[in-house]
Design goal:
By secondary structure, this protein is α/β, with parallel strands linked by helices. Helix 4 packs parallel to helix 5. The N terminus and C terminus are likely disordered. It has a single domain, classed as Ribonuclease Z/Hydroxyacylglutathione hydrolase-like (Metallo-beta-lactamase, Chain A), CATH 3.60.15. The strands form 2 sheets. An 8-stranded mixed beta sheet has the order 6-5-4-3-2-1-14-15, with no helix packed on it. Strands 7-8-9-10-11-12-13 form a 7-stranded mixed beta sheet. The protein binds zinc ion. Zinc ion binds next to helix 3.
């Protein structure tokens, strides 16, 4: 048995498999040049965990969609969206594996199926104290079923508008950046632009969660909250689509880490490599859930530590890149092998 255990350890080490509680700190892959497979980075040592009270932000790999679980140092939590209906219990399994038996808050950014398709199953499986949202839901069967279930379970819905502030746990503050209070949500043709956008702050670290908000909303936030957009970490809007992450918005946010939540070979052609380039050319560390699996960012309020479910992104077939104008430029990103200091 000892020999078997030793062999397993050697094999895990060779494969760069997690040596620590289901996650390993890994360097992000350079997305540029996906047509040529990126050289597999050598497994990096797992650095010392951050000390003190930690905020954890987990972008759970639910395939094509969003589900982000945030836990404050005092254990209070917030789930942003629940992924698609076909996510094969990935979110519920993730919550079970991490011992999450109750949700203090569930934020529905908007009513599209890749964000709310799994909510009915979630509400049937996990108690939820309160649902937060824009107050506007599509009147389709899926959304009506969610509202009916919330009513049956007596789960209240709290409407959020830009400017609202609340706490999701000790020392963890939220500022709502969209939708604007004057917006007529029912008249918005593109439901992505009804997305609730929030900034979560712990100590000196800011995280931006953008739902599927597109350039129109980005423009509005740039006008109304120019001093509030700078963040260390962003959940990239709309799965890395060209519809979002305008140059001006990326510059204003100026993140250190960007996380894109999407599935391999999704039907929407996400992500846009041009969009990802707008982050990469600013030396942003970019993580994609289709390549790295679930991505966790820990912070003690001063430093960040990024951990990914998979050690290296070699099991994802490279998508065919779109035709480009002009010559390609080689771009790379720095490996994350130590906690990132806050940008000055
Ligand atoms: Zn979406």
């Amino acid at each position: 048995m000892k020999i078997k255990a030793l062999l397993l350890l050697v094999l895990l080490t060779f494969l760069g498999a997690p040596l620590q509680a289901g996650a390993q700190e890994t360097p992000p892959v350079a997305t540029e040049g996906q047509d040529t497979p990126a050289a597999a980075p050598a497994p990096t040592p797992v650095p010392e965990p951050l000390e003190g009270p930690l905020l954890t932000v987990n972008v759970v790999d639910v395939g094509q969609g969003d589900a982000i679980f945030i836990q404050a140092p005092d254990g209070k939590n917030l789930l942003i969206d629940a992924g698609p209906n076909d996510s094969n219990r990935r979110l519920l399994t993730w919550l079970e594996q991490h011992g999450i038996k109750k949700l203090d808050r569930l934020l529905i950014t908007h009513g599209h199926s890749d964000h709310v398709g799994n909510i009915k199953k979630l509400l049937l499986a996990v108690p939820v104290d309160v649902v937060l949202g824009s107050g506007h839901m599509h009147t389709n069967h899926m959304n009506l079923a969610i509202l009916e279930l919330m009513k049956a379970k007596a789960i209240p819905m709290k409407k959020l508008v830009a400017g609202d502030r609340f706490s999701i746990g000790e020392g963890v503050e939220v500022l709502v950046l969209a939708p604007n209070k004057d917006k007529n949500l029912a008249r918005e043709r593109n439901n992505n632009n009804n997305s609730v956008v929030i900034k979560v702050t712990f100590g000196e670290m800011d995280f931006l969660f953008t739902g599927d908000a597109e350039r129109k909303v980005e423009k509005q936030m740039l006008a109304e909250y120019p001093a509030d957009l700078a963040c260390e970490v962003i959940k990239v809007a709309h799965h890395g689509s060209e519809s979002s992450s305008s140059q001006a918005f990326v510059e204003a946010v100026s993140p250190q880490v960007a996380i894109v939540s999407l599935a391999t070979k999704n039907a929407f052609g996400h992500p846009s490599l041009d969009t990802l380039d707008r982050y990469l050319k600013r030396q942003v560390k970019l993580y994609r859930t289709d390549q790295w699996g679930s991505v966790t960012v820990e912070t003690d309020g001063k430093n960040l530590r990024v951990l990914t479910e998979r050690a290296i992104a070699t099991d994802t077939p490279a998508p065919k890149p779109p035709k480009r104008r002009g010559p390609r430029k080689k771009k790379t990103t720095e490996p994350v092998d130590q906690p990132l200091p806050k940008a000055s």
